[in-house]
Amino acid sequence: MKNHLRLFVAACFYYSGLVKLARLAARYSGPRLIILNYHRADGVNLRGQFRYLRDHYRVMHMEEALAELFMLHEPKRGGKRRTPLVITFDDGYRDSYTHGLALAREMQVPITIFLIPGYIESGDHFWWHEGKNLLENAQVEEVEIEGHRYHLRQPDDRKALEQAIDTRARYATSVAERETFLAAVRQALAIPAPRPVYEDGAMPLTWLEVLEMEQSGWVTFGAHTMHHPVLGYLADVAEVQREVTECRRVLEERLGHPVQLFAYPMGKPEHIGGDGLQAVRDAGYRWAFTTIPEKNTPQTDPYLLRRRPGSRDLHWLELACLLAGLLGMRTRLRQALGKWAASKGTARRK
């Protein structure tokens, strides 16, 4: 019911002309660049989203869009050109090849994919799906993991274990620690070898698929670390540097040209950390991308570029309203009022 209401509200905003007015107003607010951040490329809604973006924004190749943004020293007033926009996909799921490539060709919109070479080379499952996947294939009814006992016939215990696996992997202080923990969980759950193959679209791309996509002219690639650790949680600065630098080296060797783009895993400030930011600068990347959901201007730090979340589950009407700033207004207003009240309280205490 909530989703239907949201779609109804989006339709009202769109067909009343408010979305169009918001887009027009954005053209007069100075140079800006919107970057969308997707992960999966299948589903029934992505075609409608791409069509809307193609028809109402200038969907550009990443490096072309960034060069345009940062070469503008003063905002142009009164221009009638559509707002530039870039579409990105993180991680390199196989459905970006089976679905995304065909869609990019059909709609004639370029996309950028941030790759994790370690997973391409191993063909293994991405670690952030392991909590759910391992429980679906568990061969035991009861298990003890790191001092906690879980009864897998009980839904609450299954949910708690899935969350525990994800949290432990996410906050690992090294890739080796993460993989050792996941191997121990597989053994405890008696997962058979060879391991089950999950949904094909959720598996990593292969190098052959990557090369075919790049040769199409519609897909460009950037780096996303070698093994997708959360850089801000790694204990060893040298490992942070290896994850960032080795990723670039491998991609350049495979693709045969310089790789200038990097996306931070998870992408919020606490996930990046000071060492992660410095490692990206030192590795020679030109641009780096967060998941901070804001627009980019010529004043944005090139190593902390903003990306708004995209989702294959959204109807194009919802996407249109989100990009126009017409959905989520109540939440933003509540947050703004909360910050204002907090600042007033601080001022009184002083």
Total DSSP helices: 14
Biggest beta-sheet profile: 6 strands, parallel
Please provide the ordered H/E string of secondary-structure elements: HHEHEHEHEHHEEHHHEHEHEEHH
CATH class of the largest domain: Alpha Beta
CATH topology call of the largest domain: TIM Barrel
The CATH homologous superfamily of the largest domain is named Glycoside hydrolase/deacetylase
Flag low-confidence runs. Answer: 330-337
Span from first to last CA?
47 Å
The proportion of residues forming helix, as a percent range, comes to: 40-55%
Mean pLDDT: 90
The total beta strand count reads 10
Beta-strand percentage? 5-15%
Number of domains: 2
The class by helix and strand makeup works out as alpha/beta
CATH architecture descriptor of the largest domain: Alpha-Beta Barrel
Shape: globular
Radius of gyration: 22 Å
Describe the protein's architecture and organization.
With 350 residues, the chain is α/β, with parallel strands linked by helices. The protein folds into two domains: 2-123 and 198-329, Glycoside hydrolase/deacetylase (TIM Barrel, Alpha-Beta Barrel), CATH 3.20.20.370; 127-188, no CATH class. 50% of the residues lie in helices and 12% in strands. It has helices at 2-15, 18-27, 46-56, 62-71, 95-107, 117-122, 130-136, 155-170, 175-188, 207-215, 237-255, 269-283, 316-324, 329-349, and strands at 34-38, 58-59, 84-91, 111-115, 142-145, 148-151, 219-223, 261-263, 287-289, 308-309. Strands 1, 2, 3, 4, 7 and 10 form a six-stranded parallel beta sheet that branches. Strand 8, helix 12 and strand 9 form a beta-alpha-beta unit. Helix 1 crosses helix 13 (316-324). The longest helix has 21 residues, at 329-349. The radius of gyration is 22 Å and the shape is globular. Residues 330-337 have low confidence and may be disordered.
